[in-house]
Amino acid sequence: MPTEAVALILAGALCHALWNMLVRRGAHPEGFVWWLAAAAAVVYAPLGLYLLIVVGLPAAGLPFVGATVAIHVVYFILLGRAYQLGDLSIVYPIARGTGPLLVPFIAVPLLGERLSPLGVVGIALILVGVVTLQVGGLRAGALGRLVDGMRHPAARYAFAVGVTIAFYSVVDKAGVGRVDPLLYGYLIFVGAALAAGPYFWLRCRPAVLGSWRENRGSLLLAGLLSPLSYFMALTAFRLGQVSYLAPMREVSIVLAALLGALVLGEELSASRLGSAALTAAGVALIGLGA
């Protein structure tokens, strides 16, 4: 695996953890997710317009841009509903764990990628570490809470979010081979904000208005960090296999837990540190075996 790809994924994971912390602290998450996309479209407009004029959007890339925008519209709607209905400690591991789990099964047959035995073990360690971290660490009771949480209505939304993550990751791997990654990423946020706007404003107007009223500063900062995180991921996808890189992105969950402990004063037990160590070991194995 190219060192540059790993570095980009890890730096992007830090940005992802930071904006995820802002979402956790914010009110009206269903409105927050739309504002995040809209803010990103505005904040990065100069860059997007510059790239559109100078680099251009190849015709061969249009189907991939259209496909990923459609998937991201569904992603934002489902993500907002999951956050609105469920406990983040259940929603987040299901959503973030499902996507990387499915990516290799989609990318290997469709993109012709190959996984080494060491890489497969690395992916498995990342997934176990991420999921157990979010439900309390490496304890039987924590895993039981995850199973119980699957019965919650929000769990179905979270699982669906994970499916959309898997599909847009594979589409984007192919898309950035045809379109500049920064332009491609910018168009995702513009397209998703515009296409999803009618749904959010008609169905979730109180949440949209309340989120802007109560979390304006956080929304703008999240709108800066979220695209930056994905720009890094898209650039990395151009350099390496998405089967490995998509699971590596989930290091953001470990970083979010660490930020929660350092910034928000949340508990970080020895059991949860064990989960973080598993995730770090998985990243290291992918780096060695890919």
List its salient traits.
mainly alpha; 0% strand; 290 residues; 13 helices
Structural commentary:
This protein is mostly helical and 290 residues long. The chain has one domain. Helices cover 84% and strands 0% of the residues. It is built from 13 helices and no strands. It has helices spanning 3-25, 29-43, 45-54, 62-85, 88-111, 117-134, 140-149, 153-175, 181-203, 205-239, 242-248, 251-263, 270-289. The longest helix is centred in the last third of the chain and has 35 residues, at 205-239. The chain is globular. It starts with a helix and ends with a helix. The model has no long low-confidence stretch (mean pLDDT 81).
What is shown here, in short?
With 290 residues, the protein is mainly α. It is 84% helix and 0% strand.
Radius of gyration: 18 Å
Number of strands: 0
Which blocks of ≥5 consecutive residues have pLDDT under 50? Answer: none
Number of DSSP helical runs: 13
User: What letter string, H or E per element, gives the SSE order?
Assistant: HHHHHHHHHHHHH
Helix percentage: over 70%
Taken together, the total number of domains comes to 1
Strand content: under 5%
* Overall average residue pLDDT: 81
Q: What coarse outline follows from CA principal-axis ratios? A: globular
Outline the biggest β-sheet: none
**Which structural class fits the helix and strand makeup?**
mainly alpha
